[in-house]
Specification:
Blueprint (H helix, E strand, L loop, with lengths): L3 H9 L4 E3 L6 E4 L2 E11 L2 E13 L3 H10 L4 E2 L9 E5 L5 H15 L2 H11 L5
Antiparallel strand pairs: 1-2, 2-3, 3-4, 4-6, 5-6
Helix pairs in contact: 1-3
C-alpha cells in the first residue's frame, strides 16, 4: 500500500522536479503538474485536500479510459476532470512499485524532451 510519503520520495527523485507549497503534495516539471493531491470539492463546504488520493497526468483520453475501465478499484474521475488527461488514484490500492511506474510515466509525459534525456542518462532514479 502506497501513501503520500511514497509520492514525495518518488517524485523528488526525478530530475528537474519542483514541489509546490501545498496542504498536500504538488509536483511539477518545467512548470507542468504531473502528480498532486486531490482537491475534493463538496457542495456547501470548503475544498478538502486529500493526500490519500493522487491526481496523475496520463497523456490522453484513451489511456485515461483504459485505466478507468481496467482498474475501477484503483482509478476514478469526476466531472471536473472531463476532457482532461487526468485520473485520480486511490493510493491504498497500489503497491509502491506500481506507484513508481505511474509517477515516472506521468513525469515522462510532462517533461520536455530536453529534460527527459536527463532521466534516461541516469539523472534520476525514483527508487532511491
Amino acid at each position: 500500500m502506497a501513501d503520500a510519503d511514497d509520492i514525495r520520495r518518488l517524485a523528488r527523485a526525478l530530475p528537474h522536479v519542483v514541489e509546490i507549497d501545498s496542504d498536500g503534495f504538488d509536483f511539477r516539471v518545467a512548470d507542468k503538474g504531473f502528480v498532486w493531491s486531490y482537491p475534493e470539492r463538496r457542495p456547501g463546504a470548503p475544498r478538502r485536500i486529500r493526500t490519500d488520493i493522487a491526481v496523475l497526468y496520463v497523456g490522453d483520453e484513451a489511456e485515461k479510459q483504459a485505466l478507468l475501465l481496467g482498474e475501477p478499484e484503483v482509478f476514478f474521475t469526476t466531472p471536473a476532470y472531463d476532457g482532461l488527461p487526468l485520473v485520480m488514484l486511490r493510493m491504498e490500492q497500489v503497491s509502491v512499485d506500481r506507484l513508481k511506474e505511474l509517477v515516472t510515466d506521468a513525469w515522462r509525459m510532462r517533461a520536455p524532451d530536453s529534460l527527459a534525456g536527463d532521466f534516461e542518462d541516469g539523472g534520476g532514479d525514483p527508487s532511491a
